[in-house]
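A common beginner's mistake is to predict each chain separately and then try to dock the pieces by hand. The better habit, illustrated here, is to supply every component at once so that their relative placement is modeled jointly.
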Amino acid sequence: MLRSQLMDRGIQFLGIGTFYVVILIFFSASTPNFGQYSNAINILSAVSVLGIVAIGQAIAIISGGFDLSVSGTLPLGAVAYAALVNRPVSVIEATILVILLGAAIGLGNGLIITKIGINPLITTLGTLSIGAGLAFVFTNGITTPLKDLNTGIWGNTAFAGITYDVIALVVLGVVSFLVLRFTVFGRQIYAIGGNREAARLAGIRVDLVSTIVYMISGGLAAFAGEVTTSQLLAGSATVGSSAALSSIAAVILGGAALTGGEGGIVGTLLGVLILGTIADGMALMHVATFYQQVATGAVLLLAVGFGRLRQLLGGQR
Amino acid sequence: MSLISHTRPVRMLSWAVIAVLAVVASACGSSSSSGGGSDHYTIDFSNVFDKSPTFKTVGDDMVSQGAQVGITVHRYDNNSDCATVLSNAKLMVQDHPDVAVDWMGCEGAGAAVGKIFGDAKVPCIAVNQMIPGCSFFNLVNKDFGVQGAAIVLPLVQKAGWTPNDTTLILAAAPGAGAEVNSNSRFFYEDLAKAWGLDMFTADQITDTTTTLGKNLVQINGQGTGNGPLEGTYTQLKNVLLSIPASRHLIVFTINDDSGLGALRAITESHRDANSMILSAGADADGVNNLRSNPIWVSEFSVFFEYWAEYLLAMGVALKKGIQPPVQTYCPQVVLSKDNVDQYYTGTTPKAVPPLPDQDKYLIQTGILQKFGNIPGLS
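With all components supplied together, the output reads:
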């Protein structure tokens, strides 16, 4: 009995949180600059864009879907924001318009998936290409600098070195966590991801909820593009190409299942932090990017592997 | 099942709190910095793209040659990704180097990176793409185009080609900015002026240009996610289907990978008897082809092997308060079959051109003399 409990504890210890602590301890011991307060802020700021995208991706994956189109929506949101604030449109108006633009792309995804019945992977792959292409079309491939640098507010410092992009990530994280955990809509998302047909039979408007999920994911991806433009002080069509795969990696790292119905925002954000911390720590250690790629992939497999091991030893399938 | 699903986020939250506490704790316990001393310089160098052997060499040389002259070089990789560029700029500032050298490889990040260095008051050098507030080190892409046109003109005239039966294919780098693409665009403009092609100026050729007049076709030489070799090969192979086999081809490529892709497409299409290729980078494949392949007529060499010593010298100059010019030029020459032996033994560079006037301030640092590679400096 005691042995079983100890084993259970031991396996639990090998969870994603432990993983992160181990990583923090390792890098703190390996490179002096890692432990600085300013570096913690750097990590948070660096992962803010991926984090915002990953929140939307997490909701899509929990609902049993996929959203590859974030890699197209993000650059579109980035160049749209730059174009809008340069007209000039106020930051608030531009933000609303950018989020609506992303939500419109999500609406398109949702309608194609639910009404026409095309697989989410194929649908969002198509809209990825369209979004990324349109970003180049609108800008002629030319980077658009912000005429008024004050419009790049998300990259500015709010207090104690913490930038607004980090605050945006935290606020969105808290809101989405609360929505997923404590609202009917959140439970419907889990239900749809767990068993779509059962959810339908239980009276959930599956198509509507799924479409809203893609609208949320699209809106967040476009907003992430706006944040990117704020950070760069310029709108570029070349940004965000890795957002889809990185966000999926973060969501899976955070304990979600690709089959849907499992996962959460806290785990996702922890996954994002792990990816960002590894990149930051290895850069500080001056490790060649080849090894960084290898390490990131290995960590992903290890973390997911430990999660699976815990499930198996806990008798879950 | 439901119990597990409710306890998991709580457990994860607990670990997240522990993680944040760990960061804060280590933040409190560490306040050291690696600022450069007065007689030992520290330079932080963020390279453009370590996955390219050519660019990786520059990073390797920065570290090894820096050590030879008593400069510690901390190295980063921008991976040609804007987000990574920003992140690395912040890491460099955090390191408090004497000078930061940033080869961004991202057209959009200049203003933000300049602000990061400016706010931290870290002297900086921008490589290849301008960063506001930083000294600028770059090649002159336009020269490649202008001198390339001068090399090609007598060759096409000697071969009996005419503007009416020749197509120029520019394998460009869309999104990399006007400066980078000025090489191919000025190549067309100058050849058009001298030879009588349909006249378009460099400004009229943009990232979205595909065809102009009867002589100009532009493709994406960088590829779309598949790299310049495969990218140029695939696009050129497709384009060649629409160009009559009787037309002569002059293909201007952005680097040697792109050039090799073009060569493969031309050879497979059996167009090598009436084609010419101009390439850039002067890697071993490029120089070998220039020496041995009749259709490979020019190679733009910027002597990446010597960039490190220039950048180290620039860094020391900045630290010593020497005001650099608007742009410091890298060593560069446009190679043809006639002058390749003057600068290369086999595929190894044996000489660089003398320092141009605007680079002569580097002599005061004494760094270039320590390596002895510049003619006239010892």
